[in-house]
Model the fold of this input.
Amino acid sequence: MSSDLSDTNLPRAGQSRHRIMEVLSPEKPAPGLYLVATPIGHASDITLRALGLLAAADVLYCEDTRVTSKLLSLYGIRQKLEPYHEHNAARMRPKIAARLERGEVIAMVSDAGTPAISDPGFRLARDMASAGHLVTHCPGPSAALTGLVLSGLATNRFFFCGFLPPKHKARLSDLEEVKTVPATLIFYESPKRLAASLRDMETVLGDRPSAVARELTKKFEEIRKGPLSELASAYEEEGAPKGEVVVVVDAPGESAEQSQEQIRDRLSALLNEVSLKDAVAEVTRESGWKRSDVYDLALGLKKAETL
Ligand code: SAM
Done:
């Protein structure tokens, strides 16, 4: 995480917890659970309210106490940290509920970005709210939105897909589920699976315009744009990139909604030039249709030709 704080006038390390609370959050927050967003790269991307809450809370739950300690020390905040992560969540929830019963102010952060977005926090928020406690969110960075904003793709309607499964087959079937969603798609992905995922996206979604947003808000932030096939080839050749990535993929275009008639015309033309297999592959890629549907259509055309 970058630690360039020169552009902030915030209290610095060494200032007391009381001073920070005075500046950032003069009133003690109401008892409840506060899901607090933290930076996804640039350490200054944290709101004044977030700092106030982190300082004022009775306890701060976090995924990794080492990661959160670093952030707190940048801002001179001393706080009691308790772990809350996928391995201890079930055990911790009743303890957190008991604290809320006692009227405590509980802050919760993940390692980076917005808790509960591909990070722990969803169940806790849901359960504590159903138990009647105040549950609220202190909004801030999330890589999904920053990736979308910088992707150059339509932002009016988008669909967050989270992480795809690591295994090829499961990934293909998840992609089938979102193939016809009429919105820009946003995926989180690990750099080591990036090339394989981009290739699977191309296979299932068709060769749509897309963007890989890497190291967002950090020094080496990079946005690469191009059709899925091009980005897949680039990362297959270069290997896994460094850092973290978000993949953003265009909504199905007109090509994906092509009528059967248009697909049939295109297939007829191609079948005069290339093999059935190649024609099917080409039209599947262009149209975003299922390969099996294109194949059936192509077989029908071939049969009609031989009659
Ligand atoms: N809760 C976080 C949020 O709101 O962004 C996301 C947590 S998820 C475990 C981590 C994933 O978010 C990474 O694998 C990557 O896909 C994405 N991510 C987080 N920080 C990023 C960054 N600075 N640049 C690009 N992607 C990032």
